[in-house]
Design brief:
Blueprint: E1 17-21, H1 28-31, H2 42-46, H3 57-60, E2 66-69, H4 81-88, E3 93-96, H5 101-109, E4 114-117, E5 128-132, E6 137-140, E7 145-150, H6 154-161, H7 165-173
Parallel strand pairs: 1-2, 2-3, 3-4
Antiparallel strand pairs: 1-5, 4-7, 5-6, 6-7
Helix pairs in contact: 6-7
Length: 174
Amino acid sequence: MKQKLTLNLETDLKLPANVWKFGDDIDTDAIIPGKFLTINKPEELAKHAFEGVRPEFASGVKDGDIIVAGFNFGCGSSREHAPLALRGAKVKCIIAKSFARIFFRNAINIGLPLLECADTDKIEEGDHIEVDFESGVISNTTKGETYQATPLPDFVRSIVDAGGLIGYAQKMVQ
């Protein structure tokens, strides 16, 4: 059975999601170790996500969980396997202080939404948050706090809503 590849940013992120917290400079080798680069199926890659740095991640991540991190998430190589592994793990989105540009683009290309937020240090592992992509407001339902992220531009949200660049292009030619 194929995994749902599209995400409706207006409705799918309204339910509180569990947070997995990471620090600064999380590189693509930490996300998916290089020895698994022969795998191209997101569901198979997901079994090895963060294997070397958070071995409990692959077995503990739940459909709809959110990764929250510090600066420079996704740095390192330009491999597309890193966002694919997280998409395969059914991570609903990643919120970080900043992203490596190529990781950001690769994630959007496969329909994995990302938000930049200066306040990620206020969000803790296990918190439950809701995300409004249109406004960029992140609500921490655990703490009763809200944080402002930079909203994705409408065009980028359209790509994510279509399940990625291929789905977006297919919609444009119909």
